[in-house]
Amino acid sequence: MNIKKTLGMGAYILFLLLPIYWLLIMSFKSNQEILGGLSFWPEHFTLANYITIFSDASWYMGYVNSIYYVSLNMVITLAVALPAAYAFSRFRFIGDKHLFFWLLTNRMAPPAVFLLPFFQLYSSVGLFDTHIAVALAHCLFNVPLAVWILEGFMSGVPREIDETAYIDGYSFPRFFARIFIPLIRSGIGVTAFFCFMFSWVELLLARTLTSVDAKPIAAVMTRTVSASGIDWGVLAAAGVLTILPGVLVIWFVRNHVAKGFALGRV
Amino acid sequence: MIKPYTNKAWYLVLPVFALVAFSAIIPLMTVVNYSIQDIFDANTRYFVGTEWYREILNDTRLHDSLVRQFIFSGSVLLIEIPLGILVALMMPARGPGSVVCLLVLALPLLVPLNVVGTIWQIFGRADIGLFGWALNSLGINYNYAANPMDAWFTVLLMDVWHWTSLVALLCYSGLRAIPDAYYQAARIDRASNWAVFRFIQLPKLKNVLLIGVLLRFMDSFMIYTEPFVLTGGGPGNSTTFLSQTLTKMAVGQFDIGPAGAFSIIYFLIILLVSWLFYTAMTHNDGK
Amino acid sequence: MNWMAWTTPSALFFTGIGCILFAMTCWELKSPCVARKGFLPITTTRGDRLFIGLLSSAFIHLGFIGMTELSIWLPFSVAVVWLFIVMKWG
C-alpha cells in the first residue's frame, strides 16, 4: 500500500517538475542549440540569456514593478481583510450572509469584464500606470478570498479567549494586535501566500492598467516575440526568473503553510 | 454556540466594503451604461436601448465560446477534483516527506499564467519540446498549433498541471483535520479503505471541496492568458473561450457597447452558476 | 463623471436597486425576518428571495430580448409579477 502511494506521488511530482525542468535547462542553452535538437542537458552551458535580462533596465524593472505592486496588494488586502474576517467569524449583523456572498461574487467576476471601466476609472483619478492602481485592482479578487480564508481560521479560535481578554481589561485594538493576531499567525501566512500567488500570476489587469512606469514583467516578456521569430532562450530565462520569487515565498512561509494546512482551516 | 447579534460589526467590515465597492460597483455600473449606448468617443454617444443585447444574444460567436467554455470548465472539474483528492490521499501525513511534497505541489501555483502558457508552448512543441517530441516518436501525430483536438488537449493538460495542486493542498489540509481516533475506530471495525474514504474522509473534506470546486470553476470559467499565449485561441477558434472573445471585442475592435452587453451576460451566467454551487453546497449542511 | 457615460434609464435602474436595498434594510431592522420554506426547494430569508427574484428577472429579460422582438416592457412586467410571487410565496 505504502509503496503504491509513494510511486503514485513520485509520478505526480515528476509530472509537475518535468515541464519546469525543461524550461530551466532551456534557459541555459543558446538559441542554436535549442532549435538544433533535443537534449536533456545543455551541452554548451551559457548564461548569456540571463545577462541579456540583467543588463537591460526595461527587463529587470519589470520584476521590480511586479514585486512592488504585489507587496502593496498584500499589505492592503491583509489590512482590510483582518477586521472584516473577525466581524464575520464573531458576530451576526444585518445583511452579513449577503455581504459575504457579494464579496465572493467579486472573486468570481472575470477580470475581462472590468477591463475597460478599470482603465477609464484609474485614468480619470490619475492613477493610470502607477503601482497602486494595479494593487487596488487586484484587491478586487484578493480581498474576498482573504476574508474567506481568514474567517475559517478565526472561527477555529474559541470565543472564550476574546471574552477572557475583555474581562482582563484589554481594549479591542490591543486585544486584536497582542493576542488575536499571534493566535492566527499561520492563517495569516496562508492568506498572504494566496494573495501573493493570485496577484503575482495575474496578467490581464496588470497589463491593461500600466504602460511604462509600472509595467509588470509578464507584459515585458512579450518582447521576445519579434518579426524574426521567438527568442526562446531569453523567454525561458525570463520565465525561470518569474518562478524564483514564488519559490522564495514558499520557502519563507513553508512552516506557516504546512502548519496552516495541517490545522485544517483553509 | 450562537454568535451574538450586533450591527456594530459593520464598522469592522466597512473598509472592505468601501474598497470593494470602489473597485467593483463603480466599474459594474459603467459597464451597464456602456451596454445600452453606441459610443464613438467621450462626447458622441447615442442611447440604443437593448439593441446590443439582442445582437450579442443572437451572435454565434457567443454561443460557440459559451459551449466550449462549459465543456472546458466541466472537464476541468471532472479531472482536477478526483485527481486532487487522490494526490492528497497519497501524500505522506507527516515528516520531511510531507514538507517536500507541499513545497513541490505549491510550485506550479506560483508560476505566472503567461509563463504557464510559455512552458507548455515550449514543452509541447515537436521539435524542441520533450512532450511533443515524445508523443510524436510514439507514433502519435501531435501538433497543438495545427490540430484543434491537440490544442484543446494541451490547454486542458496545462490547466490540470497548473491547478490540481490547489485542490490537492486544500484536501490535504482537510484530511489533516481528521482526528486519529476516527481511523482507530475504523480499524477496530475492520472498515475497508473505501469505507474509510467514503464515510470518514469524504464528509470531512466537504468544506474544503466547496472552496476547491468554486475556485476551480470560477477560474476555469474566466481562463484567458494560457490559451492566448499557447495558440492565441486557435487553431481556428477551437480554444477561444469567453474571456478571450470578450477581450477581442473590447480591446481589439473597441466595440464598447457590444462588449458591455457581453460582459453583463457573462457576469450573469457566472453569478447564476456560482450561486447554484454555493447554495447546493452550503444548504446541505443538514442544519 | 463623464467617463462613466451615464444615461437616464441606467441611472433610474441603479436608483431603483439602491432604493430596494435601502427599504429591505429598514424592513429588516424593524421586523427581522425568519428563514422559511416556500415553493423554492431551499429555505430562504427575505434577502435570499430578493436575490433569487432579481437574478431570475435578469434572465427573463435576456430570454425575451434574445428570442423575441417584443417590447422590453413585456418582460419587465412579467419580471415584476415574478418578483412579487417569489417574495410572497418563495
List keywords for this structure.
heterotrimer; B: 287 residues; mainly alpha; MetI-like fold; two-stranded antiparallel ribbon; 12 helices; 2 strands; 73% helix; 2% strand; globular; C: 90 residues; 2 domains; 3 helices; 69% helix; flat
Describe this structure as you would to a colleague.
By secondary structure, chain A is mostly helical. Chain A folds into 2 domains: 1-46, no CATH class; 56-263, Orthogonal Bundle (MetI-like fold), CATH 1.10.3720.10. Chain A has 13 helices and 2 strands; from the N terminus they run ααααααααααααββα. Chain A has helices at 2-27, 31-36, 48-54, 57-90, 96-108, 111-124, 131-155, 159-167, 172-183, 185-201, 204-208, 217-220, 232-263, and strands at residues 225-226, 229-230. In chain A, α10 runs antiparallel to α13 (232-263). A two-stranded antiparallel sheet of chain B has the order 1-2. Chain B has helices at 9-35, 51-57, 60-90, 96-109, 113-123, 130-137, 148-176, 180-188, 193-221, 225-231, 242-252, 256-282, and strands at 37-39, 45-47. Chain B contains 12 helices and 2 strands; from the N terminus they run αββααααααααααα. The radius of gyration of chain B is 23 Å and the shape is globular. By secondary structure, chain B is mainly α. Chain B has a single domain (63-285), classed as MetI-like (MetI-like fold), CATH 1.10.3720.10. In chain B, α2 packs across α12, α5 (113-123) runs parallel beside α10 and α7 runs antiparallel to α10. In chain B, β1 (37-39) and β2 (45-47) form a beta hairpin. By secondary structure, chain C is mainly alpha-helical. Chain C folds into 2 domains: 1-31; 33-90, no CATH class. In chain C, 69% of the residues lie in helices and 0% in strands. Chain C is built from 3 helices and no strands. Chain C is flat. Chain C starts with 7 loop residues before the first helix and ends with a helix. The interface between A and B is large, with 96 and 97 residues.
